[in-house]
């Protein structure tokens, strides 16, 4: 009876581990501030989606790691840093108690008068991207020049520039400049490969294979424990 109880307990633990791993695979870990560049004294809000209550906003500022307090009242954790300063610039991410991390986001806080609005997360190939140049004090009739990797790529009388059907060649460091006002810091635009259509069948097959392998492992563990129990008697 004692061996049977041990077998049952170990089998139950295997099932619990299986359930936990599936839950972690399906979780979505994101940090989404509305842009990557901010003026000093603005408030920056982070959303950690799909994380458990033990998740935290973490980051590295000036080579020093830190942990921010989050509002854990909902499945979407809201983290805020009020009245940011240039020293708050750095890399931020969400992390679970188990050590699983979200994508990281590099934000820049500037003392200047110009920031560039660009995508926070990587953009999928084929999508359109709009870059916006913002003046700290003026919101309309902005004449701006846009640069990629230090080279002028266009100008606009509206303060906006669109990139249609982005590709990997559009990746790079972007900034904008407003005459007689200043220029923004640089932000990295990342483009990801279009894979969803080609991945659908192969990814489904991989998922089925992983599930079958897990079930096979559970069955083999059960049979092994059962054999040990019979040998004991």
Automatic annotation (TrEMBL):
SMART domains: IG (SM00409). GO terms for molecular function: transmembrane signaling receptor activity. Coiled coil: none annotated. Gene3D superfamilies: Immunoglobulins. It comes from the Eukaryota. The chain crosses the membrane at residues 206-231. One of its GO terms (cellular component) is external side of plasma membrane. Residues 1-24 form the signal peptide. GO terms for biological process: cell surface receptor signaling pathway; immune response. It holds the Pfam family Ig_3. This is Ig-like domain-containing protein. It comes from Oreochromis aureus. The lineage of its organism: Eukaryota, Metazoa, Chordata, Craniata, Vertebrata.
